[in-house]
Amino acid sequence: MASKGIAVIGGIDTHTDFHQAAVIDTVGRHLATKAFPTTPDGYQHLLDWLLSHGDLLAVGLEGTGAYGAGIARFLTTHDITIVEVDRPDRKARRHNGKSDPLDAYAAATAVLSGRASGTPKTRNGIVEAIRTLRVARSSAVKARTQTINQIRTLIVTAPAGLREKLRGLTSGELIDTLARSRPAGDLADPQHATRVALRRLARRHQRLTEEITEADADLGPLTTQAAPGLVALPGIGPETAGQLLTTAGDNPDRLRSEASFAHLCGTAPLPASSGRTNRHRLNRGGDRQANRALHTIVLVRMRHDERTRDYVTRRTAEGMTKKDIMRCLKRFVAREVYRQLPRPRITVEQLTPTA
Residue 205 pLDDT more than 50? Predict the structure, then answer.
């Protein structure tokens, strides 16, 4: 075991039932590695084991938003500096091999070399509550879309008499009509079986709609409480605001600038110049759900915001394509959103120097 006087860096490869931890010193020498269960006692033993090797400078952690969320919260409450580490790329895995101890050592080495420097989300505030509620809402929306698609598919293949009765109805009328129906007959008859299936699917659609409505009623006040300035921006509603807050996390101060937030959302322009051509293209990286939220905001503004419509008209006259105009608008919206993200409040006690 190393002397307690040295400085060390930890690395953790996270899993469902256990975490593999490793320790290196400040010159990169491998000191020790050990597995710990993913339980409260296991977290405490892991921390004690890391501290027993010396002065712990930081811990590189994989999967802070998944398998490593629990240990990340535990280490944060004990004032341990956590650095978010990406999974090693495939080339490095082929060169160095793959095992849990190797991955743990690689996480610690990434922190030491500076390759990993990201600050993970704290996941302990109102934004985490919003994220959790949005998970249930998103699955309900997905299931409702699947349900209406199944209803329309059944109608397409239904007997002609039943299909003609439902032809031309809007989605709302179709769901109401099918949910109120009282099919009677022999289930061995395909037409009767189709009526029963359509009724069940329509009632499922109604239940999912109620669930989505309840989720919206919960998320609306939460997003307004978390970032009232964000919700007040034109074209931004509770759903898009909730997604952008989720992307930034409870500690948006971990983002160094509005440019870093734009990169996170995949809206930072990428150079695509060659020869006499000087242009930029859309960024297809970053958080695609955040990018989708910005895309929705831009579409709403292009239709209802006079300032945005004037901008589109001017840039179109200059010869810019619609795709490039939307890229510029998404970058502008990302800048506006970043300015309205919640920031930690500085108290008088924090400003007063201690003796």
Answer: yes
